[in-house]
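Milestone 3.1: sequence recovery, worked example.
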């Protein structure tokens, strides 16, 4: 029988006296069973090496077991001796016969002699292949192949879905997640007309209009206010390919800005029945800069509020001009500057396009204003903020020409400034007038860039980007997640 691996088990198994016989059949020695595994292995190995004997172990029932080959016994003995921590034998619980002399193990580790492997006739000698290993490798291969196939199918489906979507609009990089991120099919979330209809009270809450679109105010179920700009075109037959191209270019350009002093694009609506092309924006509830400067019913702006507004506009335009290509508002004046509850400026660009629909001017609308023109317009707005005068009065000189009287030294500063301001720091006011004068230079090549204007304004006013941004940012993203999930 094979030697047990556990030392306690080896000591507990009763061994019967074992007779070792030589090849000629004579008894060689009567071996008493040892109590430890190490002694048993040493004795068996010594007997096999010295006499080349065949060991016949006795079974627990008293009979002799089948003969084992010499090579197998020496291998087992060598393995057991390597594992045994101490080769010292312990007292045996069995009494040895009087004429038998026990074999002592040699002081060195017995190694098997090289021999030619003998064929074994015992079916237990050859270790059978474990079927569990074969099945585990087969299962591992099936799982790997299935995972690879699933990955390929997922990638193919993603490519197919991407090809089905419109590729003219680049993704809007945000930190959003969940349903809203999955709803980004063209860079911004696509919203349902029914949701916008409910938010805008069946599109009855009109707050403005242009030559080609209508502006509505809406309120989401969470109480967050939005602005919806919808095209006046109500038939697909009147919506040309040029209109569709400009509509998508508009979404693309607006989605790149993402500035805190900009009326950011929140989503769009595109449906065929009824025909709808609309854009959803943030809503600034405190009116426009034009209203606060020139309408008596509006709240008057103090000196610090005017400085903060002028700096917010400058920082926003600087960011828009840094983009590649630069994003230029299609129309830019004090009427397109909206104010938040805390009187922070919000630059807007709500028109779909400039020009008449279907004409060449539609596709060329984005080139009607360039960065130099925007710098000039900023100078005009800055003069509005300082003087409180409208750019084009009905019975007086245009603001630019009227201010040139001061620039020529023919008008005192006190007469130039808005009388409703009361007292103001004259040195700061003069420096701001110099910035406005450089912006409205008749030669566009001599006008500063918006980055230079913003740097000069910051040095004069000491108002940084954080001081010019709105203090309140409504949490409209959670509501948009729900609306986007329903739209998909």
């Amino acid at each position: 029988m094979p030697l047990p691996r556990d030392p306690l088990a080896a000591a507990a198994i009763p061994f019967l006296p074992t007779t070792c016989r030589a090849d000629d059949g004579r008894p060689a020695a009567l071996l008493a069973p040892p109590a430890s595994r190490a002694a048993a292995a040493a004795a068996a190995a010594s007997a096999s090496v010295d006499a080349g004997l065949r060991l016949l172990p006795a079974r627990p029932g008293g009979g002799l077991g089948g003969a084992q080959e010499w090579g197998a016994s020496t291998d087992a003995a060598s393995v057991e001796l390597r594992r045994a921590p101490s080769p010292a034998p312990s007292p045996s619980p069995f009494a040895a016969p009087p004429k038998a002399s026990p074999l002592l193990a040699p002081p060195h580790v017995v190694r098997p002699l090289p021999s030619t492997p003998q064929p074994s006739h015992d079916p237990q000698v050859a270790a059978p292949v474990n079927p569990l290993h074969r099945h585990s490798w087969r299962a591992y291969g099936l799982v790997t192949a299935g995972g690879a196939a699933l990955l390929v199918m997922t990638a193919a489906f993603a490519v197919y879905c991407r090809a089905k979507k419109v590729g003219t609009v680049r993704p809007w990089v945000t930190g959003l997640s969940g349903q809203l991120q999955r709803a980004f099919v063209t860079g911004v979330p696509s919203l349902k007309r029914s949701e916008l209809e409910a938010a805008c009270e069946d599109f009855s809450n009109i707050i403005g209009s242009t030559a080609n679109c209508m502006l509505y105010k809406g309120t989401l179920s969470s109480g967050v206010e939005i602005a919806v700009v919808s095209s006046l075109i109500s038939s697909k037959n009147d919506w040309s390919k040029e209109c569709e191209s400009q509509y998508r270019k508009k979404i693309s350009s607006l989605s790149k800005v993402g500035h805190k002093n900009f009326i950011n694009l929140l989503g769009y609506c595109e449906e065929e029945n009824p025909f709808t092309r609309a854009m959803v924006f943030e809503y600034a509830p405190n009116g426009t800069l034009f209203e606060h400067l020139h309408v008596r019913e509006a709240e008057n702006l103090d000196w610090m509020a005017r400085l903060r507004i002028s700096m917010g506009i400058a920082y926003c335009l600087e960011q828009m001009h840094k983009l590649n290509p630069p994003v230029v508002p299609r129309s830019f004046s004090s009427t397109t500057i909206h104010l938040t509850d805390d009187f922070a400026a919000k630059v807007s660009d709500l028109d779909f396009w400039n020009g008449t629909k279907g004409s060449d001017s539609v596709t060329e609308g984005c080139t009607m204003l360039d960065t130099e023109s925007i710098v000039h317009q900023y100078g005009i707005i800055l003069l509005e903020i300082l003087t409180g005068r409208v750019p084009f009065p009905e019975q007086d000189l245009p603001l630019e020409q009227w201010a040139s009287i001061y620039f020529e030294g023919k008008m005192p500063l006190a007469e130039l400034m808005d009388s409703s301001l009361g007292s103001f720091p004259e040195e700061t006011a003069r420096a701001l007038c110099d910035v406005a004068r450089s912006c409205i230079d008749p030669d566009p090549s001599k006008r500063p860039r918006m980055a230079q204007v913003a740097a000069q304004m910051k040095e004069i006013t000491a108002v940084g980007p954080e001081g010019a941004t709105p203090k309140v940012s409504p949490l409209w993203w959670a509501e948009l997640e729900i609306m986007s999930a329903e739209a998909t």
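The beta strands are 18-21, 27-31, 206-209, 213-219, 225-231, 265-272, 275-282, 337-339, 345-347. The chain has two domains: 1-117, 179-487.
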